[in-house]
Amino acid sequence: MYTLLLRLAAPLQSWGVDSKYDIRRTQREPTKSGVIGLIASAMGRSREDSLEDLASLRFGVRVDQPGRLHRDFHMVKKDKKTSYLTYRYYIEDAVFLAGLESDDKAFLNMICDHLKAPSYPLFLGRRSCPPTHPFVLGVREGELERILESEPWQVNPWRKARLDNELQLYVESDGKSGAERVQQDAPVSFDSRDRRYGFRFVRDAGTVFAQEEEYMTNHDPLQALRGI
Q1: How far from the centroid of its chain's Cα atoms is residue 227's Cα?
Q2: CATH number where 137 lies
Q3: Kind of pairing, strands 23-24 and 83-102?
Q4: How far apart are CA 3 and CA 216, in angstroms?
Q5: Left, alpha or beta for 106 (phi > 0: left; psi -120 to 50: alpha)?
Q6: Can you tell me the distance from the alpha carbon of 206 to that of 204, in angstroms, rounded to the nearest whole number?
Q7: Which end of the chain, N or C, is less packed with Cβ atoms under 10 Å?
Q8: Residue 203: which of 226, 181, 227, 225 has the closest Cα?
Q9: pTM metric for this prediction
Q10: How many other CB atoms are there within 10 angstroms of residue 67's CB atom?
Q11: How many domains, the chain?
């Protein structure tokens, strides 16, 4: 087995499952439909294209930095005389390690290449939430649980002293243990005329102690201005 790893971090993220219309809620961790949609966008697929190959990947998440729930509101004008408030929820200042497992290493490597040079802009749940660097961590050899347990803690050093180093894991399962929860975020179709999501089992895989390897980002926000 092989596992593709993504570091999902941004000032704001939002991973909706069942909310629509005036109140748009978010899950406290990334959804499979949201991550698969991100990959499909990177690959240049249209909303009408099949998702079968991507949806077959087994999905898991490790919570490296849980963040805080943030509520924003928007004033929407229905017409010249009518306006109303809508509420949108986000996860603020969170870091997640997401894994996608397959026995097809070439397929995961192809996805990895597309994510590094995406066909469309990428975002974490909503268009106002682009990911920060580093985003694509690469393909590791091993099963999903083991890779999520062993990968170094994806948090800046100055944050670590303020956080609990026990990291929560959530992994997709077959539902046979009886201890899973059911979540409706398995993508079937992103077609705007026939948007559908199936159910999948999610298992709380417990906690692991963070690997205390030095983590640093090489992001330089002023790089584009140098030499001017």
Answers
A1: 35
A2: 3.30.70.2660
A3: parallel
A4: 22
A5: alpha
A6: 6
A7: C
A8: 181
A9: 0.86
A10: 21
A11: 1
